[in-house]
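Hi R.,

Here's the chain you asked about this morning:
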Amino acid sequence: MKIVTDCAADLTRGEIYELGITVAPLFIQFPEGEVNALDTTPDDFYRRLKSMEPYIPTTAQPSAGIFTNIYKKLIESGEDVVSIHISSGLSGTIESARLGAAQLSEKIVEIVDSMTLSGGERFQVLAAAMAAKAGQPKEFILDRVSKIRQAVEVIYTLETLVYLQRGGRIGRVQALAGSLLHLKPIITVEKSDGKYSTVGKVRTIPKALEGIADHMEKVYGKETELWISVLHGQLEEQANNLAELVQKRLNVSKLEILRISPVLGVHTGPGIVGLAAVPITLMEGLG
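And the predicted structure, written out as tokens:
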């Protein structure tokens, strides 16, 4: 069993290598050409992004042909495939995956809509890959991924909505646009449709971090043991502050601080900080 995903899952290079995960590329389209998001670091990307303002690049999903080639190679090596991707409510990537799988005569590619992105997608992929490495059957893997999908929470705040607005990805957050662009939104991803939704708006990043902690406490309480990934673009200090805050407010069993993928940074800019959380029991017992 092999696990396929896309680079919106914010996996570390170590995780990809150690668990044998295949990552389909997403692309960043600059005026001078297209860049594979896997081939650029967050800091290099943000330097380039800032130098181009007010121009904002666009992103492109993998083609169906890319997925067909990925699946074909894995199937020819004797593997079944579970392919987990960024929410269909935010990207057309999963449709490309479905079209790519449809080109194969073998119907042994299972396509899974994570209904989220970033750290929330990553937890699903990690669990699937750890279970696959341990030799668990497809039914076990899909059941655990489904449980994680229902339990995971992704929430973040932005210094500015300009990037979401210009990129056309503002969705339900659009009520905050225009004259309210100076506010700091607190944005989550709805489990029902995998789209962005605003849970609050405040005037400063520190207040937004408090709002994130409040939301997480409402979702999980103080008893649920959590694995939390704090993620940011170029807000290291605020990421550290958020990590400290949630450790005080929640029952954190495991915590890490990671960087957001450049392909997501296109739509958020460097001023993003937030977290993904999952009950740690769902990430255990996979072997």
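The chain has a mean pLDDT of 92.

Let me know if you need anything else.
M.
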